[in-house]
What does this fold into?
Amino acid sequence: MATRHPQAAEVSARVLEWAGRHLSFLPLSEEELRYSLRPVVLFPEWAYPSAPVERFADLSAFTTYFFAIDDTLDNFRGGDDGDEGGGHRELIRSAVDACVRAHHGEPDLTSPWVAAYADVLDGVRRRMTPEQYTRLTSVCEEWFEACVRALDTP
It folds into this structure.
């Protein structure tokens, strides 16, 4: 039987606050950001109903970060590719490269995408074994590479 995490409301508020601090560069109002991310933030409460609060918050922020990139890529693929879109496209390309460098302890925090990623990655890393972290970052690097391919696909 599915069950919600008993501290889901607290974690949701914490992650939405994190998103407001770290994803405010996205072209969304605060209300739009909260609305678009709410289902993403809530997903881990069902997947990890017994996780410690800090772990639950890390996983929710991590999921939120990846959905924000995915939504941004969807906007590009949807045809909204004016001058602003081209700038965001290059921002994502540079962020992908910098995120991969962040896995190896060399984050370039000048990109807002990377600053957000470095913050969430730090929380996740602190609660993982080195082997878990290596597996996670390997999968993330594959995902980032797929993002770049999606940017280049008409």
Observations:
- The two ends are 43 Å apart (CA to CA).
